[in-house]
Please model this.
Amino acid sequence: MPKITAARVIVTSPGRNFVTLKIETSDGVHGVGDATLNGRELAVASYLTDHVIPCLIGRDAHQIEDIWQYLYKGAYWRRGPVTMAAIAAVDMALWDIKAKIAGLPLYQLLGGACRTGVMVYGHANGATIEETLENAAVYASQGYKAIRLQSGVPGLNGVYGVSKDKFFYEPADSHLPTESLWSTEKYLRSAPGLFEAARDKLGWDLHLLHDVHHRLTPIEAGRLGKDLEPYRPFWMEDAVPAENQASFRIIRQHTTTPLAVGEIFNSIWDCKQLIEEQLIDYIRATVVHAGGITHLRKIASFADLHHVRTGCHGATDLSPICMAAALHFDLSIPNFGVQEYMRHTEATDAVFPHAYSFADGMLHPGEAIGLGVDIDEAQAAKHPYKRAYLPIARREDGSMHDW
Ligand code: CS2
Ligand code: MG
Model:
């Protein structure tokens, strides 16, 4: 049996912070897992180094399910983003090892490919509607079949999802949280115009998506969903903060716009009611933040029973290791919907050489054995950790709003 002989955490910041777990085995095979938790990276690094790695040494690397249960049940303190990102990193690395030993790309171990590729959506954004649509046209010309549209809101100094750099959106951009202004009224006035203009300019063949970033109340979300209906959006994402799952009933009563939620979910318990009551159409939980491939498969299987498809989070704060894991997962499940894809910078790609590739609006994980991604430790060492936070949002009266 391949025994776990060593494991270590590598923190690197090629433009933004990434936390990686590398596990070595007695067979000489190693595996990698993403453990990045944007803005709280070192908490997961410590959880792994101080509390998880000592318990892994000497274990059979093939026992993925047992190790998952051991780390989840054994901690006593279940769930939460730090715990679940740490477990996810172990899980990814162990699947990587198992697939490498089998000599197969991981998706073959997950049941094989259900599709020829994974449809991805890119991010078009701009300070104005015109700028956003110009940017969207660039994505369309690159072959994207699905595009997320975010635009600045007149009267607000900056909006989530609208980046300084058109192609490399990076929200965790400061050593202390920056502040942006929010007005629900102004936003609700401008958002439908973006989609009306988009259908005029881009036509009806593209899937158009929109992220509300937890900014609305359920009744406000119902109204926005209704206002967007004529433009047939693919989805409206994170319409409200989702701690209260029952609140999605109100949104559902008012609109047929498909709903997506879950990029910050950590486990099946965060979406059990949402899925069971068919209150959503897409679940956005990711490999890294929802307990790894092992747990995400459970969520996806449960979702499949309730007509809910997947739409995994894929922002740049998830490392190429998570992206590779997501692609193997996406390729192998029956109820895949879409995969978010924000390209990483060249510096990040140099730290994480990978086999996945983009063509015709689709990503494919490639045929390399394992996850098909690795960490170049010499490159990683060139980029030391740099504290970085996500911004916060305040309303016009100075009070805090959801981000
Ligand atoms: C966003 C993210 O990709 C998305 O849908 O919600 O960009 C989010 O802001 C970041 O991942 C935060 O870490
Ligand atoms: Mg989002």
Summary: The chain has 13 helices and 16 strands.
